Structures are given as C-alpha cells and as structure tokens.
Amino acid sequence: MRNLLNFLARYNNLIIFLFLEGIAIYMLTTGNNYQNARIGNNFRSITRGFEGRISKGRAYLSLMQVNERLAAENVSLKSRLEKFTKADNSPFFSVTDTLFSQKFTYTSAEVINNSVTRQKNFFTINKGYRQGIKADMAVISDNGAAGVIVACSDNYSIAMSLLNLDFKLSSRLKSNGNFGSLSWDGRDYRYAVLNEIPQHVVVSVGDTIEATGYSAIFPEGTMVGTVSDFEKVGGDFYKIKIALSADFRKMHFVEVIGNLKKTEELELEKLFK
Amino acid sequence: MINRVLRLSLLFVVLILLQVLVMNNIQFNGYINPYIYLLFILLLPFEIPSWLLLIISFLTGLIIDLFSVSPGMHASATLVAGFIRPHILRILSPRDGYEKGSEPSLHTYGVRWFVTYAAFIILIHHFVLFYLEVFRLSDFFRTFLRVILSSIFSLVFILLIDYYRKRK
C-alpha cells in the first residue's frame, strides 16, 4: 500500500498528463467524422450566439456584392422561367400533383460559422431539423458545390465543406462527359484536384467541371469549377487542378438541396450490391 | 500575487479573443496558421506546480476547441506543451537558477533565452497539433513543412505580442 502511494506521489504529473491526454484523444477520435461533427454540434452550442453576431456584422459589410449577385441570379432565373412558360402549352398533359416529377427541394440558409484554414473544414448553417434539413443533403454556394450536411440539431446544421480531406465528389468534364473523383488536397482553398480521368481524354485549361449526380446528393450538372492546370501522373490518368467556383472565404448565403427520390434510388441500387 | 493572477487572466482573455477572432482567419498559402494562445502557457510563473500547469493547459486548449469543430485537438496539443514546459525550463535554466517571482518573458531573461524557450515549446505543440489534424502519415513531409512554417509564424507573432505587451 505504501509503495503504491509512493509510486503515485512520484509519478503524479505523468498520471495526470496521461489521464487528460486520454480524454482529449478520446474526444478527438470517437467514432467517425459524422459522430465527431455531431459531438462538435453539442459542444459548440455555447459559442453559437457569439458567432451569429460576428457573422451578422460580416454580412452587413458585404451587402453590396450580395445584391449584385442576387440581381444577376434573378436575371438568369427569369430567362429560364421564360423558357418554361413557352414550353408548357402541350395540350394533352394535366397534372394536379404539385410535387409531380419534382426531384429536388431547395432551401436557402445563412452560413454562421466557417473555416478554410484547417485540413478538415466544416461550416455551420442557421437551419436544422425544424426547417427540414437532414443529413446527406447537398449545400451549394451561389455559384458552385460547397459541401454536404453531416449533422443537424433543431435549428442548426453542420456541413462538411468541400475543403475537407474526407470529402469526395463524383464530377465530370462538361465537354465530353468523362467522370472522375474530385477531392481537396489540403493546400489552397481555391483549388481542388480531379483524379481518375484517363489520358486519352482531351482536357484543356478552362473546361467546366460539373457534378455527375451519381451520388444522389448533388443534382446532375451542379457547377463545381474550371480546369486551371493538369499533368500526367503514373501510367494512365491525369491529375487535374480545378479552380473552384464557390468562394469559400466569402460564402454567406447558401442553398441546401434535398433529393426527394434518394431513398428510392438507393434502395434499388442496394438490391444489386 | 493577486495582481499577477489578475494580469494573467486579462492576458488569457485577450489572447483567446485575438486567436479566435483574428488569427483563426489567417491563412498564408494553405500552410501557415499562427497559434498565439501558446504565449499564455509560456508566460505562466516559474513556481506554478506541474499538476496545475497541466490542468490549465488542458482547459486552454479545450476553450480554443470550443470555437472549432474538432474537440480534443488543441486540448491534447496544448497539454503536451504544458507537460514538456518544466523539462525545457530545467534544461535552459541559467547557472544560478531563475530569480524568484520573475516572469519567463522576453524582458526578464533576454531575447536569446526567450526565443529558444518559445521555439522548443511551439515546435512540439505544432508537431502534435498538425499530425493529429491530418491523422495520417501519408503526407508526412508536407505536414512537416506546415509544422515548421507555422511554428516560425507563431514564434514571430508571439515575440511581437510579448514585446508590445510591456511597453504600454
């Protein structure tokens, strides 16, 4: 007994250190990223009011650019609407179901906390379960893919940013349809990397990259970015550097996109796995 | 004594706010994030018992974690820094020991001493932090480069803050 007490007295610092380090590592590694984000969600309810205020201040400073962007978007939406009203006069077609063949739902939200400086970036938006947000919904900033929702509380959600080493997005070259896997290499918040494009495909700087829709998260054709550079690596594939079209530094208003037919698609695909 | 505790608490609040509001938004070239809150751990008095130092460093890291989505990351890195601090102080101690009641800062023991002391602790802290962040060894050298570059920046910022802290 006395030896034990002596031992404890002698190594008490080491013991405290190991104990606290154990707690920290436990917090760090519990489960996968989803659970991690979920813990973070509870963990951070304390700081959220504070962050909301900062983000409001920032939003005020960028009102002018936001206005310009909204005006531009209005114009493009109006021109699309024009197309639809003209095409809609086919006489043998009448449906009363308002959700008929609608595949995606759109909600707008505000980013209240965001980071681009880490290797695994997440951002928080100001809508949650009560506003119909669920995990695995897509988030796009006004001009490109931005992330995926990983956890929700009643009024807030956390999204894994595209700027996260664990983020993968199936994307393709708009010009010829060849698809590959897009990920972030952790270097610069303006660029991502597209892999698995075979070398016989013609790639040129400035080509548009869009999402394929294979993951049933992002709608097909969502803008991702443009080719800024490419090189041949290994035997067969290109490594293409993509300039992302979403500006993660200035991201404030985002759209959250839910796929209404996702469960149906995944259930069907599960049968053949 | 009370005065000193008050001053350290004020420093703590200022450093945390500076870190969260300003430094966390700084990123040079994707490699460099300065972490200045370490200055608080560096400036704690010599006489502080090791167990208290450990608990304070753990809590400091935890508070920084509160403002990010990765609970535990800063806590474990800062804890390592707090654990290693007494050993580094012992190695760097001058021939006749540290003066009683003095502060381990730029102004009391000189630039050369403080730079060595700060550089060791910052390097160790950043090493733990950045490798825990990526949590893989595949990009070993790139992460190592980030550790070195960020350490240099943190060191510069910490020196500047410690220098201007006393002048007002």
Question: Can you lay out the helices and strands and say which pair or pack?
Answer:
The complex is a heterodimer of chains A (273) and B (168).
Chain A (H helix, E strand, L loop, with lengths): L1 H9 L1 H18 L3 H11 L4 H14 L1 H25 L16 E11 L5 E6 L12 E4 L2 E9 L4 E8 L3 E6 L5 E5 L7 E8 L9 E4 L11 E11 L3 E8 L8 E7 L2 H10 L2
Antiparallel strand pairs in A: 1-2, 1-12, 2-5, 3-4, 3-12, 4-5, 6-7, 6-9, 7-8, 8-11, 9-10, 10-11
Chain B lengths: L1 H20 L16 H6 L6 H17 L6 H20 L13 H29 L5 H28 L1
Helix pairs in contact in B: 3-4, 4-5, 5-6
Q: What would your notes on this structure say?
A:
The complex is a heterodimer of chains A (273) and B (168). Chain A folds into 2 domains: 2-45, no CATH class; 105-273, Rod shape-determining protein MreC, domain 1 (Thrombin, subunit H), CATH 2.40.10.340. Chain A contains 6 helices and 12 strands. Chain A starts with a helix and ends with a helix. In chain A, the strands form 2 sheets. Chain A has a 6-stranded antiparallel beta barrel with strand order 1-2-5-4-3-12. With 273 residues, chain A is an alpha+beta fold. The mean pLDDT of chain A is 81. In chain A, a hairpin with a 3-residue loop joins strand 10 and strand 11. The longest helix of chain B has 29 residues, at 106-134. With 168 residues, chain B is an all-alpha fold. In chain B, helix 3 (50-66) runs antiparallel to helix 4 (73-92). Chain B is built from 6 helices and no strands. Chain B starts with a helix and ends with a helix. Chain B has helices spanning 2-21, 38-43, 50-66, 73-92, 106-134, 140-167. Chain B has one domain. The A-B interface holds A 12-13, 16-17, 20-21, 23-29, 36-37, 39-40, 43-44, 46-47, 54, 115-120, 122, 158, 165, 186-189 and B 21, 24-27, 29-31, 33, 50-51, 54-55, 58, 61, 65-73, 75-76, 79-80, 83, 132-134, 139, 142.
